Amino acid sequence: MITAIIPARGGSKRLPGKNIKLLNGRPLIFHSLDAVLGHGEISKVVFTSDDDEYLHLVEKEYGNSVVLEKRPDTYASDTRKVHDEIVRLKESKVIESEWFMLCLPTAPLRSFETVKRMLVDWKQDKEARFSASEYDFPIQFAFEIDSDNNWSPISDESPMITGNTRSQDIPVRYRPNGAMYLQKTETLGRTKTFYLEAKPFLMDSSESVDVDTELDFKIAEIVMKEQQV
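^ thats the sequence. predicted structure below, dont judge the formating
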């Protein structure tokens, strides 16, 4: 019923070789593959990459349990979005199921149990989902800085203006964390994002670490080791 896709480009400017960098002894991409393999609702797992080394690593570790898809260079540049690659997979009939689940490899703390929880939620109403988490710091404090280094709030209700800075009085705000998207395949090409017609699936901040820098990587490694104690 569901095709799971793990996309991983070879290039990474902020953290070179990020997607195969060893996290707790395993390449980063393996943690996402481990999270989606073994679920009854997921009938097919696809790993797509423009990097032959990545594809060979996955083939050696997972064999026939993962479908390998070479991502064309034109779909792997900095200017192309993941959404474009998922649409390509649909058009090339790599995705033929009614539903697909996109899991970005930069969210390695999204575990097998996390995926299972989303699938349990989805089975209750068969509505699309995207993963989200609370902002670590109240977004109401956000402000802009102009060329003269003067600041201005993003809202007239800013606590920096009203003085209502008690955390208990500030409403919680949420953000998509990029870990998982579970969506109907027919929306590809009809919409330009994975969020429309979908409900948020809340994840803990400890599961939502997004690895983009060396510091992110170190944080993810610490959290992962603590979870295994």
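The longest helix spans residues 112-125.
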